[in-house]
Amino acid sequence: MPVRDEELKLLNEHLLQMAGLVERSIRDSIRSLTERDSTLARKVIEEDHKINTYDVKIDEECIRLLALKQPMGKDLRFITTAMKITTDLERIADNAVNIAERALELNEEPLLKPYIDIPRMREIAQGMIRDAINAFINEDKKLAMDVIMRDDEVDDLNQMVFEELMFIMTQDPSTVSRAIKISFVSKYLERIADHATNIAEMVVYMVEGRIIRHMVPNEIETS
Amino acid sequence: MPVRDEELKLLNEHLLQMAGLVERSIRDSIRSLTERDSTLARKVIEEDHKINTYDVKIDEECIRLLALKQPMGKDLRFITTAMKITTDLERIADNAVNIAERALELNEEPLLKPYIDIPRMREIAQGMIRDAINAFINEDKKLAMDVIMRDDEVDDLNQMVFEELMFIMTQDPSTVSRAIKISFVSKYLERIADHATNIAEMVVYMVEGRIIRHMVPNEIETS
Fold first, then answer.
1. Computed from CA positions of residues B94, B67, B61, A57, in that sequence, does the dihedral angle turn out positive or negative?
2. Which of B60, B62, B70 to mutate to test the interface with A (most CBs of A within 10 A)?
């Protein structure tokens, strides 16, 4: 970890705590679906406010650091990036709440089919968040690039899930309502991976001062 | 408009220009669908890079202002809020690109039914963006609150569109592929309205120093 003063270290700690809660929220939302555990789904929804509190707290902390310490160069970019990252983390948690809401509905209906690709997507997306935050704190460009590369895997899985569900719906219209809810869950996971990718792009941008955010993966590797 | 120095005025101008491009992108993406104009859809997709350029440019401008002017109090919050707003604007434009992509696909297939609610959603969502940006520049809390209130209208229309499409799919499985693409367009518009709401919430927060971001509408009105 780069040398930082006590206040920046505290900011890191709070970010890690927030990311930990967000990861748990994703894991529990998918478990509430695969294990048909509506109590767990309700817990995810009820505890979202804790993540919101971190968002506001870290934002305030960053504003205070900017005002009091008037940081320059690297520290300045670190703090403004932290402010943007919390927004992404908070929206990731909103997607976990959306998954839990769909789980509550799906748990009331018969199981359409066992969930195979969705837990896999969850695993990749959650790892992407963890690595994106670690890449930020350690200013680890290589790890951030690695997160960006993994986004395609989640996109492909989402496409596969979607096509399979479309096929099921076309074969049997009585499945439409459930299939659409499952396709939403898959879409929420894809969006979670997108947010993790956004975070990783901001990290590369911060470390390199290079405009990576609006490049395609190929340009990133070769430029 | 509050009194501001030349550099902050320039920042406002760039934000307004970016928001103008984003609004046009939304309008054109929906027109490409309702008028079945695939050339226009491709234009929306191709010109998205202009909006990305603004995102990076405004971000750099804010970092420079923070480093050189070391602003305090109101100006500090104004600049950090601008940095967050550009992220939302850029993602709104991504949703317009997604709409254009679905339009390209839908324009290749027979029309499922005339679009009535979707143009209405577009109109509301676009107005929300315009007003959210104006609320930011003029520090107009009342206008920002008004934007937040309008989000429910878009949510309700999205729900209506979705239920209608579900009914159509259940009646006739041959419509599934088209109906799902239309439901995605509706969902993208709903997400655009969510981003406008996020911007408006940040404006209220900036003006009032009050934590509005994680309240429900009722709490906002009465607190």
1. positive
2. B70
